Amino acid sequence: MQEESKLDMRMDQTQEITASDIINSYSEEELYKIIKEYGEERFALNIARNICIYRKQKKIENTGELVEIIKKSIPTKFLNEGHPAKRTFQAIRIAVNNEIDPLYQTVLQAINCLKSKGRLCIITFHSLEDRAVKNAFIQASRKVHLPKRFTILCMWCYKIRKNYKQKTYYTNG
């Protein structure tokens, strides 16, 4: 993102799909969903629309081109809130590497392995992981009998003025 390079973003170079594939071939709706869901970007619709407009004229080949499209998609008064492409690049990287679904599936499998009165502790480091874990617990609670007020403790730790933040979720059991 800081320097101009090709749109790849694969953590495993044997994977077939690259960031370029997503940027240059996905529909506006698919791009919007990825950028909104994985990047939590409030200007996802503008970004997806402008990517599609730009690529009609020319294939988007590098990060510099993508950054310029993103900058033009965000209102000027919001450009000072960190790097404007940060959330979009995060979203595309997550989509390229399929980073969230394996976590969700692993949590479901781990819950199924628990014995009676067993415990499972999962620590997440950002809101997307937190949401995947929470949704897996909610999904599992629909399939198996869980005690009333079964506590799902989803915790992500990040330092803000040397404080830690913690969230607790309860099933509707």
- Given helix and strand content, the structural type is mainly alpha
Classify the helix fraction into a percent range. Answer: 40-55%
Which fold name is given in CATH as the topology of the largest domain?
A: DNA polymerase, domain 1
Q: State the distance separating the first and last CA atoms.
A: 45 Å
State the shape.
Answer: elongated
CATH architecture annotation of the largest domain: Orthogonal Bundle
* Residue runs with pLDDT of under 50 for 5 or more positions: 153-166, 168-173
Strand arrangement within the widest β-sheet reads: 1-2-3
CATH hierarchy, class of the largest domain = Mainly Alpha
The CATH superfamily of the largest domain bears the name Putative methyltransferase TM0872, insert domain
- Please give the radius of gyration in angstroms: 19 Å
Q: Approximately how much beta-strand content do the residues carry?
A: 5-15%
Written as H for each helix and E for each strand, in order along the chain, the element string is HHHHHHEHEE
Largest beta-sheet characterization: 3 strands, mixed
Topology, number of strands: 3
Count of DSSP-assigned helices: 7
Mean pLDDT across all residues, rounded?
A: 84
